[in-house]
Amino acid sequence: MADCADLLFELGTEELPPVALKKLSDALTQSFVDGLKRANLPHGEVHAYATPRRLALWIESCSTAQPDRETERRGPAVQAAFDADGNPTKAAQGFARSCQTTVDQLERLSTDKGEWLVHRFQEKGKPTLELLPGIAEEALNRLPIPKRMRWGSSEAQFVRPVQWLLFLLGEQVVPCRLLDTDAGDQTRGHRFHHPQPIRVDRPDRYRQLLQESGYVIADFNERRERIRQQVSQTAAAIGGQAPIDEALLDEVTGLVEWPVPISAGFEERFLEVPHEALISTMKKNQKYFHLVDQQGQLMNHFITIANVDSPKPELIKEGNERVVRPRLSDAMFFWQQDGKQSLASRIDSLKSVLFQQKLGSMHDKSQRVATLAGLIAGQIGGDSAMAERAGMLSRCDLMTEMVYEFPDMQGIMGRYQARRDGEPDEIAQALDEFYMPRYSGDSLPQTKTGIAVSLAERLDTLVGIFGIGMKPSGDKDPFALRRAALGALRIMREHSLNLNLHALLEVAAEQLQTAITEADCVEQVYNFMLERLKGIYLEQQLPVDLFEAVAAIRPESVADFDRRVAAVAGFRKLAAADALAAANKRIHNILKKSDQPIPASVDPALFDSTQEQNLHRVIEQKVEEITPLMEQTAYESVLQSLSTLQAPVDQFFDEVMVMAEDPAIRGNRLALLNRLNQLFLGVADISLLQAR
Questions:
Q1: pLDDT tens profile 521-545
Q2: Measured between alpha carbons, how far is residue 290 from residues 242, 306, 347, 415 in Å?
């Protein structure tokens, strides 16, 4: 490598948004490295640093200059560059002057389009010091900052006011001014422990100087893991465990430069409140790590991470306890007030809350969901009456003070309140499961009542919104219909529910018939869900033609779809699979192109070849063989049985002219092929399978 030196860039600011800190650091790193690449500046390892008050990069062994390169500049065509006597024309002379050379020093370039004068020269690479300001400025401009701000009288714009700029190449300051700030060789330590400037003499000493002198752990990941270890050790010292939320850990890491754990607590009486509400306020409002005991029950202790190593940590402890107490008191007040009314007593209040203008109130929706849930529960072996009750109560917790204050408690509050009301435990559990899955990869409802209510909710929403012509378009999906469809499919698929999806959509549409304006909304929803199902299978690396082969026959249930997919996947591995797929494709095309009615049954009296007789005999044998297998949904066994048809099918096509001149014989042969086709279509349309 040419001469090189370590590069250090640090932008010092007021406190950056903690949630966005890691994203800003990653974006700065990527943009800066991309800039070096575009400038053809080789370099070594890249180290990114991010704290609340700085974004920084240490890049090892960065080239101090661009490499020299061979450059070619094309001039006029030789024909225009010289006259008839071979003397250079003004065009050639002008080109030579612009290249600061003479015509006789120019070279010639031959191409298929003619011959040209050309000047080749060595272009000296620019010094890195000259290129770095532009690279840094572009990297800063590319940062994903939704709203930039100005400060003081400066016209510069950034996410927070800039306080200093450290920019070194080796031991030399990169001369530049960015965001109205001149580059220098000084950084700053911790705001309280070391507010004075710290001179950085070499880039490779930056991290060590900050940590040893400045009370700053510059590396985001190192600071993050230190906090994780501190929280775990502090929790263990109290006799508890800290279930660490990774998003909270990232946010806290973005709030501190010198993490110090402080354990604190609150009165045991607050543990009467649903623990999820207490945890929510500790995490979201106060950025505390909650603790649980060995049985997983919430303890009346928490851990906060201070950004200062105080000589009196008890003052920080007392301050945090004093701050959190009013929030916990509010949660207790809401819990006690909500307990004065049962969920059932809130049903009528849902009439005043609109679900959607054309689809009625939350009360109307609850009634529809209750009816559909009762039907589903009956079909999956659940208690229909219990499912209907859960459906009516499913939204009542939205009317509580607790959910109004803590929106994340919807469903969870329903479960707690239902138990307090004395509702059966399955109903209480179902009120929480009603919202499951809340997001991709979330847990599914497990009780039959919860499954029925959760599924009914999603199907009613899908049919209702599609029915009034508001289906998703592009990236617009205000009613989260894609998520609703995926949730419903996961429930049916992962619980292997033999539910007739089309029939359930019809029931949902019947309940909404006065509101629905789209006549084919059931088909629209079914196809929409089929597309989502396709996405699920493709994510699992299922070949698209295999999915299409099963989808073509529109199975009644998602569970049945799954069984057919597994069967076709097994069939595809058989030696006869490709030949039978090709034969089915040929049969499909013949039947589709036929312009005469195909008889409903085959007449053996019209056979005039042994191949027809053999194929007919084997088909009838297969009908008897696979009929009980189809009743047992043993699709894989069905296809294995049908795979033995390859030989008689091949013989038939080799020796028999299907489109015979005699209409009766032709029709009978078409009927025979149709009979064969229907055998395979009992499982899937294997004509859609592509040859391997």
A1: 999 999 999 999 999 999 999 999 9
A2: 6, 15, 35, 22
Centre a 10 Å sphere on the Cβ of residue 112 and count the other Cβ atoms it contains.
4
Residue 245: pLDDT band by 50, 70, 90 thresholds? Answer: very high
User: Residue 275 CB: number of other CB atoms within 10 A?
Assistant: 17
The better pLDDT of the pair 105, 522 is held by 522
State the virtual CA torsion across 64, 70, 74, 79 in degrees, nearest 10. 160
- 358-411: pLDDT as tens digits: 999 999 999 999 999 999 999 999 999 999 999 999 999 999 999 999 999 999
* Structure tokens given for 286: 């106060």
How many H-runs (helices) and E-runs (strands) does the chain carry? 25, 17
Residue 279: CA atoms inside 13 Å, Cβ hemisphere, count?
17
Contact 671, 600 (CB under 8 A): yes
**Burial call 230-241: b when 16+ CB within 10 Å, e when fewer:** bbbebbeebebb
3-class DSSP assignment, residue 304: strand
Helix H or strand E segment including 62: strand 54-63
| Domains in the chain: boundaries | 4-66+127-213, 72-122, 239-338, 349-541, 562-688
Please provide the size of the chain in residues: 692
State which H helix or E strand residue 73 sits in: strand 69-77
Angle at the Cα of 556 from the Cα atoms of 554 and 557, rounded to 5 degrees: 115
DSSP per position, 442-466:
PPPP-SHHHHHHHHHHHHHHHHHHH
What is the pLDDT confidence band of residue 589, given thresholds at 50, 70 and 90?
Answer: confident
The domain defined by 4-66+127-213 folds into Alpha-Beta Plaits (3.30.70)
Q: In one letter, which amino acid is 391? A: G
Are the C-beta atoms of 577 and 543 separated by less than 8 Å? no
CATH of domain 562-688: 1.10.730
| pLDDT exceeds 60 at position 1 | no
Mean pLDDT of the chain: 92
Dmax (CA) for the chain in angstroms is 112
Look up tokens 């106060």; give the residue: 286
List Cα–Cα distances, 67 to 42, 64, 172, 580, in angstroms: 9, 9, 20, 63
